[in-house]
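Re: that backbone. Tokens:
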């Protein structure tokens, strides 16, 4: 029980869930913070061509993702994906957990839909 509490706090720290909710939009359909949206667009543009066309496509993509999953689901999946990249025993634990797979599958489906809509 104590280990799961530590893991939850770890995830909350890395996904900014601890940040006060006043920083987020009040509309539940638009609960992604501007910072998260801009980070996504910058990362998307840097992995593609850094031009205006891709800025529009990447902005569209995060909007489509936001339509399909909540910010909390997105933040959890992003934290899990970062943890899965590592090789330590703690990070390895996230590679086989069913809840992690469920969260990641939901994010992957939202990303696939956004690519179909925007690219």
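Recovered sequence:
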């Amino acid at each position: 029980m104590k280990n799961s509490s530590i893991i939850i706090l770890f995830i909350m720290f890395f996904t900014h869930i601890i940040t006060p909710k006043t920083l987020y939009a009040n509309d539940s359909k638009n609960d992604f913070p501007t910072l998260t949206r801009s980070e996504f667009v910058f990362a998307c543009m840097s992995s593609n061509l850094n031009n205006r066309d891709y800025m529009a496509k990447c902005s569209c993509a995060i909007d489509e993702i936001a339509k399909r999953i909540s910010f909390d689901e997105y933040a959890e999946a992003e934290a899990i994906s970062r943890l899965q990249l590592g090789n330590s025993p703690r990070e390895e634990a996230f590679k086989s957990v069913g809840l992690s797979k469920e969260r990641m599958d939901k994010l992957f489906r939202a990303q696939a839909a956004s690519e179909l809509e925007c690219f």
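Confidence is low (pLDDT under 50) at residues 16-26. The helical segments are 2-14, 34-46, 52-68, 71-84, 89-93, 98-118.
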